[in-house]
Amino acid sequence: MKTYLSTLFGLLFSLLQPINAQEIEPADQSQFPLKVMSFNIRYNNPNDGEHTWPNRKNRVASVIRFHGADLIGMQEALRDQIEDLQQLLPEYSWIGVGRDDGVDAGEFSPFFYRRDQFEVIDQGTFWLSETPELPGSKSWDAAITRLANWARLKDLRNNRSFFYLNTHFDHRGEQARTESARLIVSRLQIMAANEPIIVTGDFNVPPSTETYQIMTASLRDSRLLSITPPHGPEGTFSGFTVVPGSSYRRIDYIFVAEGIKVQRYGVISDQWNGNYPSDHLPVLAELLLP
């Protein structure tokens, strides 16, 4: 009996002792989901009536904040819109230049990123033209100057780096779009051959086009990779006003390189009293880097 009690007390005593933290198998902290958004916010056009930027800016910021995007590639942003969003979303920093002069003139295709989550290792801009290093240049049948902004970022949660690019293709020139796609693909092969790659943008084409085929020859459409069924409508070019039963063209994309997993994908159709925050619906993908 004494032996039994001694054994019992010994067992209880051992259970009450603090557990050595080194003996616990640590959880895998390397797989942090990365929430990436592509969002054409519509430029600040005073002729947009009730949909002018002062009436929309809080809604745009609310969508970004509520859906918890870590990295947001925007299109059509003017400098004053960027400054408004920086004030409304102080937890983010941004990168980008004006397309007309490489500084402040014209629309930006900037991207916002969580300042406490990412380290910017490198960054740059090139123009979608036959002279990519010349600010303000345009070629082929492009109606407007277009550019691509890129950065090499490190996610400080797991120290994993990746290459990110955000762009906006021409809305009229078919040749300009196909040549822009070829330019971007060739640049990625040189600049980020062995890195995880994420590309966001308004490409102004549906999936049936040559431009889309060029992009997806080396990258993957995140919608098609999503482990969970895609959320929301398929199309992204919605106009400002909700029209029940209507279908939209899918022209905004998040492309990823081989090896990146897409846990979730959605087109966000949040609206206020029948109005969207922009004439494009934002696209959101939750990614896992390899």
Total domain count: 1
How would you spell out the order of helices and strands? Answer: HEHEHEEEEEHEHEHEEE
Which secondary-structure class do the elements indicate?
Answer: alpha+beta
The CATH topology assignment is: Deoxyribonuclease I, Chain A
What do we call the CATH homologous superfamily?
Endonuclease/exonuclease/phosphatase
Please estimate the helix content. Answer: 10-25%
- The rough form would be described as globular
Strand order of the largest sheet: 3-4-2-1-12-11
List keywords for this structure.
Deoxyribonuclease I, Chain A, Endonuclease/exonuclease/phosphatase domain-containing protein, alpha+beta, six-stranded mixed sheet, CCR4/nocturin_mRNA_transcr, Endo/exonu/phosph_ase_sf, 3'-5'-RNA exonuclease activity, single chain, 6 helices, 290 residues
Short description:
This protein has 290 residues and is α+β, with helices and mostly antiparallel strands. It has six helices and twelve strands. The chain is globular, with a radius of gyration of 23 Å.
Explained architecture:
The chain is of the alpha+beta class and 290 residues long. The chain has helices at 2-16, 53-66, 79-88, 174-191, 210-218, 222-225; strands at 34-40, 71-75, 92-95, 111-114, 118-127, 147-155, 160-168, 197-202, 220-221, 252-256, 261-267, 283-288. The protein contains six helices and twelve strands. A six-stranded mixed β-sheet has the order 3-4-2-1-12-11. A six-stranded mixed β-sheet has the order 5-6-7-8-10-9. The longest helix has 18 residues, at 174-191. The protein is globular and about 45 Å long. The chain starts with a helix and ends with a strand. This is Endonuclease/exonuclease/phosphatase domain-containing protein.
